[in-house]
Hints:
Elements: E1 7-9, E2 33-38, E3 50-52, E4 58-65, E5 70-75, E6 80-86, E7 89-93, E8 100-104, E9 109-112, E10 118-122, E11 128-135, E12 144-145, H1 147-155, E13 158-160, E14 166-168, H2 187-190, H3 198-205, E15 206-207, H4 209-215, E16 221-225, E17 230-231, E18 236-242, E19 257-263, E20 266-270, E21 273-277, E22 282-285, E23 291-295, E24 302-308
Parallel strand pairs: 2-3, 16-17
Antiparallel strand pairs: 1-22, 2-4, 4-11, 5-10, 5-12, 6-9, 6-11, 7-8, 7-10, 9-15, 13-14, 16-18, 18-24, 19-22, 19-24, 20-21, 20-23
Amino acid sequence: MTLSTPQIVRYGELKPCKTAFIDAHTPGSDRKENFTIIGGGVSESPDQHVHITDRIGFNIGAAGQPPKCRNSLHSHRTAEVFFVLSGRWRFFWGRWGNAGEVVLEPGDIFNIPTGIFRGFENIGEDYGMIMAILGGDDAGGGVIWAPQVIEDAADHGLVLSEEGKLYDTKEGAALPEGVGPMPLLTEEELENYPEPATCEVVPDYVARYLDMMALAARAPCKVIGDPALIQDRPGFEVELLSRGSIPGERHTHEKPTVLMPVKGHWRLDWDGGGAALAPGDTALVPAGAAHALAPSMTGEAALYRITATEDSAGPTWRAA
C-alpha cells in the first residue's frame, strides 16, 4: 500500500469491544458495543481493537446499542461529535443527566459541547449505530466520569485506576500495588461543569439532516467549521455532500480526509484503484492523494466529509 492509497474499514468488518468502559457491567449499559475505527480512541480496556492506527489529528469511532441501552454520563476535554447512522437516539446532559436533552434521527449531527457531562441512549426499536468524531490524536486524554458512574461500576465489579485502566474484580483482577483508584470529582470540581438548558445547546450545536441536504443541493454544506452551520473550530471541519454537490473532477486535500456515507452507495476512485462505499463504511484518504467521488446508484445519496485542520482540539463550550 502506498501513501496515496485510501484505507477503507467496512461496516460489516467492524470489531466491537463490549468491555470498553467502566459501565460495561452496570445494568442498562451492559449491552453496548464500542468501535475504534481510526486513531487510539478513548477506550479504558486493552480489548479494544483499533482498525486504522494512523494519527491524523482526530479520531473516528462508533457506538452500537440495542434498544433501551444507554451510555453513562461522562465528559471530554476535546470535541465529541456524533451523527446518527441508524436508530433513534436521545442525548442528555448535566451532572445528573437532567439539564437538557435532544432526540436525533438518522443523518442528524450533534457537536456536544466540551466540559459538560453527557450521555445517550437508543430509544428506537432496533439496534442502532452512531458514528463519532473525537478531537485530537489522544482523544482528549480519556474520559471523565460523573461520580455516581464510578460508584455504580464498583458495585458491579469494575474498578478504574488512577491511570485510567479498568480492572474486573469479578474476574479476580485487582489494582496493582501502589496504584490507587480513580478519585471521584469533588463538589468544588463539579461546580466547574456547566448545566446548560436545551435552548442553550440545540440551536448552536445540532444540525438536522434534512436542513443540511437542502443546503447541499448545489455545493457541499459546511456543517462544522468557521463559518458553518455549527460555528466551531475543534481541530477538524465537517461537510455534508449530496449528489448535487460532489466535486466533478479528481482533487486533493492538504490534510487527511475521512469519508463516511450516510445514505446511498458511493464510488471512490484514486490513481491505481477504486472502491464502492456504503453507509457505515469509513474511508481514510491520505493528504495529497488525488481522488474522485460520486454516487454509484440512483436515489438519495449523502456523505459526511471530515478534514483535519490546524485548530486546537478544544474546548468548544461557549456560555451565553
